[in-house]
Amino acid sequence: MKKIDIGISESDREKIAGGLKHLLADSYTLYLQTHNFHWNVTGPLFRELHLMFEEQYTELAEAVDEIAERIRTLGVAAPGTYQAFAQLSSVEEVVEIPAAEDMVKILTKGHEQVIKTCREVLKSAQSGEDESTLALVSDRMQVHEKTAWMLRATSGN
């Protein structure tokens, strides 16, 4: 690859991209979890949750592409395997199919974890004066904060 000269040092680009890799892994894991719950939710809130989960996984599908492209823009390879995501993600994987109320709680926790990951990435982006990553991650954090709030409201917490 040709030398990248975008006003961010190579070490800062690598550090920022490293944080973005964690954000990508968290986001992809949450995407898979949300899609799984969309397929498998049952009970009296089926329709409401089925549709809400679809909105959420659709939004996450677009987000992972934006995050991966930002990593590539910084000159770093984006992770793209289940194995890489499993090693990088802080979102806990759920193997069983939980009850609908538990799905909401699990997804709330997942979104809250992504928010924490965003906060870490923001620190390195601020340090590296990377406004593009700051904007992307700040926007992502806002989406996850709102989604976590909506999920908490759904569960009455």
TrEMBL record:
<dbReference type="InterPro" id="IPR012347">
    <property type="entry name" value="Ferritin-like"/>
</dbReference>
<protein>
    <submittedName>
        <fullName>Dps family protein</fullName>
    </submittedName>
</protein>
<dbReference type="InterPro" id="IPR002177">
    <property type="entry name" value="DPS_DNA-bd"/>
</dbReference>
<dbReference type="InterPro" id="IPR008331">
    <property type="entry name" value="Ferritin_DPS_dom"/>
</dbReference>
<dbReference type="InterPro" id="IPR009078">
    <property type="entry name" value="Ferritin-like_SF"/>
</dbReference>
<dbReference type="InterPro" id="IPR023188">
    <property type="entry name" value="DPS_DNA-bd_CS"/>
</dbReference>
<comment type="similarity">
    <text>Belongs to the Dps family.</text>
</comment>
<feature type="domain" description="Ferritin/DPS">
    <location>
        <begin position="20"/>
        <end position="154"/>
    </location>
</feature>
<dbReference type="Pfam" id="PF00210">
    <property type="entry name" value="Ferritin"/>
</dbReference>
